[in-house]
């Protein structure tokens, strides 16, 4: 496997040509398990020697054989990567910002299709992550459970009969599970309904964040909804609670789109085609405006206003136009102005490619 492929392709293989259920609103599903090993200091108090020992042990144990049909896992050590390569992995949601920025002897093990990511020496010894296109919580529960069992056959977890899996942060104690879905909610934002929905979601023990998790911004009307509590509930309960809320949000977003289309069709068409025109012709564009225009374009595609462009264009260009990817393609560090120029060029060329293929 070429390691360079992890940094050169914006769309992971698991996302290519796959829509998944309810993909017009739910772009992806992620399940992540936090785990620590017995007899090793947790990362928050570990010194460099113990972190190195743990990394060597885990990479040896988990690298002996591939997992299921997904094959061998490729090890990428953070110390071997450039700052920009780490930034690209964050932009693809394959590692966390924490692992990229502050980890001692951190690493990630990736499956060839990038649907499985095992982070080592992050906030916890292990973060097991599974990714799916569309709304696939049940499938994620099965795969993450199987991956967890596979790892536990090789190592001994830090586990307490009353508290469950022991983690660095108390909010992860219990199942250690974070289940989340990435949702595109332009109509709820436009109608200002989302401001009323968010407090209700929080009261149900769930949290809404930006596209890169805690502390990140909701660019392009993309929101990540996940569970907040991991103690006192089973993995199945967590997934079912999240599923129920997400299904209601999907219904609200679809209803809002229909109402907007019926009451303000000309205005919606104007908004969509203005953004399409700007994306197709601009010579310089900042990341926030690009995200906003790409959201409008994706809405136009989902409303069948624009034909010949795949819905995955939003997924792809939201990653491809981030600073890490722009600089990776350029092969050099770029100023903000240079990135804005290259971003506009890349979007124009990508849209022309879609039109040509159509």
From TrEMBL:
InterPro entries: Arg_Kinase, ATP-guanido_PTrfase, ATP-guanido_PTrfase_AS, ATP-guanido_PTrfase_cat, Gln_synth/guanido_kin_cat_dom. The keyword ATP-binding applies. Keywords: Allosteric enzyme, ATP-binding, Kinase, Nucleotide-binding, Transferase. PROSITE patterns: PHOSPHAGEN_KINASE (PS00112), PHOSPHAGEN_KINASE_C (PS51510). It comes from the Bacteria. Appears to be allosterically activated by the binding of pArg-containing polypeptides to the pArg-binding pocket localized in the C-terminal domain of McsB. It catalyses: L-arginyl-[protein] + ATP = N(omega)-phospho-L-arginyl-[protein] + ADP + H(+). Residues 25-256 form the Phosphagen kinase C-terminal domain. CDD domains: bacterial_phosphagen_kinase (cd07930). It holds the Pfam family ATP-gua_Ptrans. GO terms for molecular function: protein arginine kinase activity. The keyword ATP-binding applies. Its EC number is 2.7.14.1. A motif (RDXXRA motif of the pArg binding pocket involved in allosteric regulation) lies at residues 339-344. ATP binds at residues 28-32, 93, 127, 178-182, 209-214. Catalyzes the specific phosphorylation of arginine residues in a large number of proteins. Is part of the bacterial stress response system. Protein arginine phosphorylation has a physiologically important role and is involved in the regulation of many critical cellular processes, such as protein homeostasis, motility, competence, and stringent and stress responses, by regulating gene expression and protein activity. Belongs to the ATP:guanido phosphotransferase family. This is Protein-arginine kinase.
């Amino acid at each position: 496997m070429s390691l360079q492929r992890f940094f050169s392709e914006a769309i992971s293989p698991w996302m290519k040509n796959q829509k998944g259920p309810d993909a017009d609103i739910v772009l992806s599903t992620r399940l992540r398990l936090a785990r620590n090993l017995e007899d090793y200091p947790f990362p928050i108090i570990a010194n460099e020697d113990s972190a190195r020992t743990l990394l060597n042990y885990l990479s040896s144990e988990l690298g002996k054989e591939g997992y299921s049909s997904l094959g061998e896992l490729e090890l990428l050590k953070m110390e071997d990567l450039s700052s920009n390569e780490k930034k690209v992995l964050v932009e693809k949601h394959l590692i966390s910002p924490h692992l990229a920025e502050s980890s001692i002897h951190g690493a990630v093990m990736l499956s060839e299709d990038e649907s499985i990511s095992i982070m080592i020496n992050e906030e916890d010894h292990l973060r097991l992550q599974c990714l799916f296109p569309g709304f696939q919580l049940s499938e994620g529960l099965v795969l993450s459970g199987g991956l967890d069992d596979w790892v536990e056959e090789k190592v001994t977890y830090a586990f307490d009969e009353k508290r469950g899996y022991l983690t660095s942060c108390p909010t992860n104690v219990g199942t250690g599970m974070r289940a989340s879905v990435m949702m595109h909610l332009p109509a709820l934002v436009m109608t200002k309904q989302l401001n009323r929905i968010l407090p209700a979601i929080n009261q149900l023990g769930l949290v809404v964040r930006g596209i890169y998790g805690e502390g990140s911004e909701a660019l392009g009307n993309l929101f990540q909804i996940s569970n907040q509590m991991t103690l006192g509930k089973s993995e199945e309960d967590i997934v079912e609670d999240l599923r129920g809320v997400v299904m209601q949000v999907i219904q609200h977003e679809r209803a809002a789109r229909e109402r907007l289309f019926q009451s303000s069709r000309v205005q919606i068409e104007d908004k969509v085609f203005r953004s399409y025109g700007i994306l197709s012709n601009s010579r310089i564009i900042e990341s926030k405006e690009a995200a906003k225009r790409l959201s409008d374009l994706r809405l136009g595609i989902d409303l069948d206003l624009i034909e010949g462009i795949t819905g995955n264009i939003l997924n792809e260009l939201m990653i491809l136009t981030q600073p890490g990817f722009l600089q990776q393609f350029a092969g050099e560090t770029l100023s903000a102005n240079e990135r804005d120029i290259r971003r506009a060029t890349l979007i124009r060329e990508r849209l022309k490619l879609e039109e040509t293929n159509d």
